[in-house]
Specification:
By secondary structure, this protein is an alpha/beta fold. It has twelve helices and 13 strands. It has two domains: 202 residues, Rossmann fold (3-Layer(aba) Sandwich); 150 residues, Phosphofructokinase domain (Rossmann fold). It has a seven-stranded mixed beta sheet, sandwiched between helices. Helix 1 links the parallel strand 1 and strand 2. The model has no long low-confidence stretch (mean pLDDT 94).
Length: 415
């Protein structure tokens, strides 16, 4: 390799409203630390295998572009859900990846993603060490699910929690407006396959002027249909208007997802994850039939991860911080690591970037602690709320054009 110092960065998995702030942190820090070129993989490692990448200096020209990128939702470079095979299963793929890295004279490979993305960093760094390749491999945390191990929380979670809490308040206000002499039940479906961090965030809707959701069910605990029905029947006699939050991944004692009771789609992705949808719709139909009142279901779906207009300032700043920290770590010789967020204090809230061996993180899930859920298993505790509340604070005003937020968009025609 020559004395040129190039770096490449990719984005993987489900996007967030702040994933591009991490990208901005990578780009800005790489330029400040003297890297010659900063390449961006188009659609993660899957696109990289097809030699799809772009010189980011053709896309980001000014500090204003950096600020616009920080406020842009989804994956600026495009994302993917691609599972690298084990090294012994297909060594040719690894040879191809390192051939491209050598051709581009890459010194550091940065991957922004969640659990499955950290598996990619683990495999590539292991292969580099085994074969004696000089490249450094660093992971940058990203997931609204907040389920990565060892980091206090993940970039993307705070903004999603902020959107979910705000939307829950608005749904409650809407439901109250139509509650005169009518029993009404609203079921909110929140993302979360195995971890209920996002669903628990609906509890933040309980404020001075809002009662918040009445029940919250997380996937960490077994969901009991009979117990659920009895609880709702009891509450509806006391309060004619109920709002209930459920994780998409709540399961029955026999390990079936509740959404499977409706006979939904059986799509499974490359990582073996079933597509989950229809949990709230099934429960709303179930309660309507059993109780005989009006019910409705609301899936926040992709809105909870793409609502950059509701992004938390804390979240954007920390996403930028961990992107920059990954470049710094690679520049100083680290590899096979993921940057984490360490909480320094709660009041005032302060955090800093740390770094851990990716082998301790990849394929491990951080779940909501049992002690942060009430004894009945249908609401979160004050400890949970105290943990999340600092992460939703502040905002970055969007750059508005003709009444709508402006975004930075990839333009491959730029030279």
């Amino acid at each position: 390799m020559s004395n040129l110092r190039n770096i490449i960065v990719g984005q993987s998995g489900g996007p967030t409203s702040v994933i591009n702030s991490s990208l901005a942190g990578v780009y800005k820090t790489a330029k400040e630390r003297g890297f010659h070129k900063v390449y961006g993989m188009l659609h993660g490692v899957q696109g990289f295998l097809d030699e799809k990448y772009v010189d980011l200096s053709t896309q980001i020209h000014t500090d204003m572009d950096i600020e616009l990128l920080k406020r842009t939702p989804s994956a600026f470079l495009g994302s993917c859900r691609y599972k690298l095979p084990e090294i012994h299963e297909d060594p040719d793929i690894y040879e191809k990846i390192f051939h491209i890295l050598d051709k581009l004279e890459i010194e550091a490979f940065i991957y922004i993603g969640g659990n499955d993305s950290m598996d990619t960093i683990k495999k590539l760094s292991d292969y580099a060490i085994i074969k004696g390749h000089p490249q450094k491999f660093l992971g940058v945390p990203k997931t609204i699910d907040n389920d990565l191990a060892l980091t206090d929380h993940t970039p993307g979670f705070g903004s999603a929690a902020k959107y979910i809490a705000a939307s829950t308040k608005e749904v409650i206000r809407d439901a109250l407006g139509l509650s005169y002499n009518k029993e009404n039940i609203t079921i909110l479906e929140i993302m979360g396959r195995n971890a209920g961090w996002l669903t628990g965030a609906t509890a933040l809707a309980k404020t001075e002027e809002c009662s918040g959701p009445d029940l919250i069910y997380l996937p960490e605990l077994t969901f009991d249909m009979d117990k659920f029905l009895k609880k709702v029947q009891k509450l509806i006699k006391q309060k004619p208007n109920l709002v209930i939050a459920v994780s998409e991944g709540i399961r029955l004692a026999d390990n079936r997802y509740v959404c499977e009771l409706s006979g939904g789609p059986d799509y499974v992705d490359a990582f073996g994850h079933k597509q989950l949808q229809g949990t709230a719709a099934y429960l709303a139909t179930f309660l309507g039939a059993e109780i005989g009142c009006k019910t409705r279901s609301i899936e926040f779906s992709t809105l909870q991860r793409s609502a950059s207009h509701m992004a938390s300032r804390t979240d954007i700043d920390e996403a930028f911080m961990v992107g920059g920290a990954a470049v710094k770590a690679a520049d100083e010789g680290d590899t096979g690591k993921m940057v984490v967020i360490d909480r320094v204090s709660d009041d005032p809230y302060m955090s800093t970037a740390g770094i851990y061996d990716v082998h301790r993180i990849a394929n491990n899930e951080k779940l909501v602690p049992r002690e942060w859920v009430n004894k009945e298993g249908d609401f979160v505790t004050e400890d949970f709320i105290d943990y999340v509340k600092p992460l939703i604070q502040g905002d970055y005003a969007p750059f508005m054009v003709n009444g709508l937020p402006q975004h930075l968009v990839l333009d491959l025609d730029k030279k």
